[in-house]
Amino acid sequence: MPDPTLAHLANHVLAWTFFLSVAFGALMHRTQFCAMGSVADIVNFGDWTRMRMWMLAIATALIGTNVLGALGYIDIGQSIYASGPILWLSALVGGLAFGFGMVLASGCGSKTLVRLGAGSLKALVVFTMLSIGAFATMRGILAAPRVYGLDRIALQVVGSQDLPSLLARHTAVAVATWRVLLGGGGGLALGAWSLSSAEARTPRHILGGVGIGALVVALWWVSGHLGFLAEDPETLQSVYAASAGNHMESFTFIAPLANSLLWLLMYSDASEVLNIGIVSVFGVILGSAAHALATRRFRWEGLAGLEDTANHLAGGLLMGVGGVTAMGCTIGQGISGVSTLSPTSWIALASILAGGVAGVRFQAWRLHRSG
Question: pTM, whole model, 2 decimals?
Fold first, then answer.
């Protein structure tokens, strides 16, 4: 039988996860936080305002996560982003596919959930296709090429691969000091740049950037500190309660979407249990729906025609495949991952941005060609 102490702790973690996720969904809807939109604004109009909001979220997450790590409240090396080899090729290829797909699908994984909560049936199509693509890449037909192909081309690292740990092993400076210098200092510099434009200093943009980043940090604390059990009475090993893979977790929206669909389909199977990722998916949808209804912005939205349908089908599939390959999305790698100072995450973020730019230019080319 499951240990009652661990079960109680898991329920506590899931309750906090749900609360933070509802806030996450409501905040994204309130501030129009959108990674794809920020890329499109730059390419189409030269407007960096929404990108500055995204960078402010990264800056906030960088500072908060690394302060928690430096003070010993969480072990950043126990996240999926900071453990294992540096999967630079997987991050590069997966990020490009994800970035291109999010443009076709009118938004990334988190935006899909927010749009779904606000009444978009387009988002339901993307949700389904993203989940199929993610399943195929995690456990299905594309799993072998990923695991035995792309993931084999990597930089092997002894111990944690995050930059503070790497630097500490080759210098006389402690890991905690590097976290303060790189995470705190880098976050402050990025935050200063984000707020250097008057257009980005509006209450909405500050709320979106600081709020989303702070929620990522809060979930790191819930999973990595509140949910950490140093010794499971059954296994005598450390455990992260309610984690899908016994890792410290924060917000990410690729594998959790696929696992949420599986949980709904296999509800009566005792092996399919709620975890942080699944609860966060339902929480974001509910938070967005609540805010949309409260502000009378809830609108049913359907697909416009054959081309629109094809775009959303292909975009969702590309995001699922690319997101699993890159180990995350614009939130998972783009905020949660980079906050750990993992080189893989920074490569994935740059690749997602490049894929997004390519996607926006592709759409502009198609529009010009058809016109």
Answer: 0.96
